[in-house]
Design brief:
alpha+beta; 5 domains; 4-stranded mixed sheet; 15 helices; about 35% helix; protein biosynthesis; Leu-tRNA-ligase; Rossmann-like_a/b/a_fold; ligase
């Protein structure tokens, strides 16, 4: 094996019209016989070009390194830039990428590490295999040769039956099973399949964007379930997140005018937020930040829905609180968030803003639910301040309608109070009998 000299690179491959297998196990490139036959420039002797070339993957296997230093014409990647940017934090790809890309990327990276081009043994810190989005659930019923319905749980052989797809509006759910509305005794098979043109269950994203907007599609795909799990598409399900975005818009901008348009500006005010408003905001911040790190985008969206529900009950919408919430929303619904950001009076895109961070002082629960026992048996719970004294806790328990009937007119032998845990009132049974 003799390498080409640098002045012979890059080597131009021949034009081929026939790429069919050779039948000998040799690559199709061997069909370019005149190109394969060559001369060794060092010895002048006849030579044969190597035809078992690497696939195009060889280039895609190290593209992430080139992104770190794309304009460097002297070396693959500058050592300082590679050390700063590498290794890649997260690699997201389907399970099929394990051999189509990931395996070879790791091979190449380890070679580059051995020759001193990169500073890390592994190219990626974290691997995430995202789940598939399956088509909508299909309901299949069965008919016998006489055209009569056969239940899917029948003892009869379903392989001899004719399968028939049934529209969702003719189906109802009974317990864990799906049955015909007109005949609940006929159980159906319900299954979601991988989207494919052959099944006719492909959802065109352009159609969804046209009807609901890009933010709704983006948000729904994240809200369907954990990133790593396979999920079943439901066109009806997108309505929920679309309504959430609508509620968020109206929370900030206000109700629509009679002609359906919205007035300029927002409903927010420059008042100082209350402690409770800050507590709700920072709890949302903490949860969204944690769920993003753990790729649990669906529960991050749930946290923002809870915030919007709470904010609708406020008398005022403090600008500082709404500003922070819009920044929280921006990775999930960037178009809506950007529009709200400018309506809130900001001249520069929110893409340049720091993502909000929760402060611990607002995450501490000031009130707790405290179990109350009478003679060692739990009789109810009360809501008390975390720093409440034993006497105050007892007074709250004694005035509670559910607990007072156990205490009224009774002599108390002692009280056992564990702050933040429990209150146990021991009655004097002897005095109670006399």
């Amino acid at each position: 094996m003799v390498p080409l000299t640098e002045n012979q690179l890059p080597l131009t491959l021949p034009e081929l019209d026939d790429f069919t297998p050779t039948g000998t196990g040799e690559p199709p490139l061997t069909k370019a016989a005149d190109w394969v036959r060559t001369t060794d420039v060092l010895t002048g002797k006849p030579a044969r070009r190597e035809t078992s070339t690497m696939p195009q993957w060889a280039g895609s296997c190290w593209y992430y390194l080139r992104f770190m230093d794309p304009k460097n014409s002297s070396t693959l990647v500058d050592k300082a830039k590679e050390s700063y940017w590498g290794p890649v934090d997260i690699y997201v790809g389907g399970a099929e990428h394990s051999v189509l890309h990931l395996l070879y990327a790791r091979f190449w990276h380890k070679v580059l590490y051995d020759i001193g081009v990169v500073s890390t043994k592994e190219p990626f810190k974290c691997l995430i295999n995202q789940g598939l989005i399956l088509g909508e659930v299909e309901y299949t019923a069965y008919r016998d040769n006489e055209g009569k319905w056969v239940s899917a749980d029948s003892d009869s052989s379903l392989s001899d039956c004719i399968q028939e797809k049934v529209p969702a509006d003719k189906i109802t759910k009974v317990g864990d099973n799906y049955v015909l509305k007109d005949d609940p005794n006929i159980r159906l098979n319900a299954r979601a399949y991988k989207m494919s043109k052959s099944r006719g269950n492909v959802i065109n994203p352009d159609d969804v964007v046209s009807e609901y907007g890009a933010d709704s599609l983006r948000l729904y795909e994240m809200f369907m379930g954990p990133l790593r799990d396979s999920k079943t598409w439901s066109t009806g399900g997108i309505e929920g997140v679309h309504r959430f975005l609508g509620r968020t818009w109206r929370l900030v901008v206000g109700a629509p005018l009679p002609d359906g348009s919205y007035k300029d500006g927002t409903m927010v005010t420059d008042v100082e937020p209350t402690f409770e408003q800050l507590r709700v905001l920072h709890k949302c911040m903490a949860r969204v930040s944690e769920e993003i790190q753990e790729t649990r985008f669906n529960t991050a969206i749930s946290a923002m829905m809870e915030f919007v529900n709470a904010a609708y009950k406020w008398d005022t919408q403090p600008k500082s609180v709404i500003d922070s919430f819009v920044l929280l929303l921006s990775p999930f619904a960037p178009h809506l968030a950007e529009e709200l950001w400018f309506r809130l009076g900001h001249a520069q895109s929110l893409a340049h803003e720091q993502f909000p961070e929760a402060k611990n002082e607002y995450l501490k629960e000031s009130e707790i639910v405290l179990p109350v026992q009478i003679n060692g048996k739990t009789r109810g719970t009360i809501l008390v301040d975390k720093e409440c004294s034993e006497d105050d806790v007892f007074q709250i328990a004694a005035s509670d309608d559910r607990l007072s009937k156990y205490l009224d007119g009774k002599a108390i032998r002692k009280r056992i109070y564990v702050p933040g845990r429990i209150l146990n009132v021991i009655l004097d049974q002897q005095k109670a009998r006399t």
